[in-house]
Specification:
Elements lengths: L6 E4 L2 E4 L7 H9 L9 H9 L2 E7 L2 E10 L4 E9 L8 H11 L8 E3 L6 H5 L20 H4 L2
Parallel strand pairs: 5-6
Antiparallel strand pairs: 1-2, 2-3, 3-4, 4-5
């Protein structure tokens, strides 16, 4: 993805789309142990980051959160891999991150913006996310153990 880095600041925190700021080790460690990306190989994460619009939350130079939007920047976006590290939860950072993502100029005018969540439905509903419209048309091809087979 060839996007121009953007930043938002709130007090001591910054949300940035600058890939050069990412702590790939932190992101990989978190995602590889999450319920939705368990076992994700680092090379897969790096390829995903390269081809997504990424958002990091930083407290000084320390990364404390992450999200990525998989998108064509025209009609569709899929929000993925959203997290705030344990010691920084409860400070409104996930809400602010969502505001930054949804306010990003490249993500305006999308016809559909989707995500999956098992445990943060309340967060996303406050920003207009809900069950799929016409769910009878939703299809997916799901390979739950794909990372176990990746070399």
């Amino acid at each position: 993805m060839n996007d121009t880095p953007r930043e938002w600041q709130r007090g001591e925190f910054v949300v940035s789309t600058d890939r050069s700021r990412l702590d790939i080790d932190l992101v990989h460690d978190y995602l590889a142990s999450s319920y939705w990306a368990a076992g994700m190989p680092r090379a897969v994460l790096e390829r995903g980051i390269e081809n997504s619009l990424i958002f990091g939350i930083y407290h000084g130079s320390r990364q404390v959160g992450f999200a990525r939007a998989i998108t064509d920047l025209a009609t569709y976006g899929y929000l993925s891999d959203v997290f705030v590290v344990e010691g920084y939860r409860g400070q409104g950072l996930s809400k602010w991150l969502m505001e930054c993502i949804l306010g990003h100029p490249e993500l305006q005018g999308l016809r559909r913006f989707a995500l999956f969540t098992r445990d943060a439905r309340g967060l996303y509903e406050r920003y207009g996310f809900g069950p799929p419209r016409g769910s009878s048309v939703y299809l997916e091809r799901w390979t739950p153990n794909v990372y176990a087979a990746t070399p």
